[in-house]
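tool=predict chain=A
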Amino acid sequence: MSEPSAVLTQRHGAVLQLTLNAPANRNSLSAPGVLEGLLAGLADLDHDETLRCAVITGAGGAFCSGGDLRQLAHAPEQETRARMTANAALYRGIATANKLVIAAVDGPAFGAGLGLAACCDLVVAGQSARFCCAFVRVGAMPDAALFWSLPARVGRTRARQMMLLADEIDAPEAVAMGLADRMAAGESALPDALALAERLARGPAQAQACIKLGLREAPMGLDEALEFQLTHAPTLFAGDDFREGARAFFEKRAPVFGRPRP
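tool=predict ok
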């Protein structure tokens, strides 16, 4: 009998659900197969034109507990450096993907698990969600791209507090500070995250990609912002999605994006 996959994949129309499935390790990124499974899922999202959005969640009541301290404490520096290089491909892949990625957080998102959530375009927090930038508790510095993603989400002051104090943050506080984008209506974050992903999957793909790119390159100066819009906006205005959106506006109906229009 084969071992269950460390990352379960499930399609919901144009939405790809990626479930971290190493509950014995609280879905640690160090658990065998988790990193590789996430990277494979992101590759599927990138290459499959019928997929428009992904949702990352965790099994067994945890989102992701980060790295395995037992491994890190006994690994030589060269091995740790190689592992962090491999992990960087995950955060870079989420942040630079042309398609949107949503984190559905139930239970702990600690350390690198916080980084995994913060790199996503939107974060939905379930009632049990807990966030913690826990690195300083064990004498480490934040990694997982958190020096980029955390200030972008909560500002430099709150990011500094999270990094230095390592306090746990519950779902309501996470939403209030911008760490999470919304709190789930029910106990679990997954149903709301999937509904949000399905809504986004019906949206204009090129416009969404441009918004994601612009936010990734922010903050911009005035000249940079004007140059960015001059580079990308005319292409969107000449595209099928804009023409459909404008037609639907005047016809007082919902637009249907993603289909060529006359």
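The mean pLDDT is 94. The first helix runs from residue 34 to 47.
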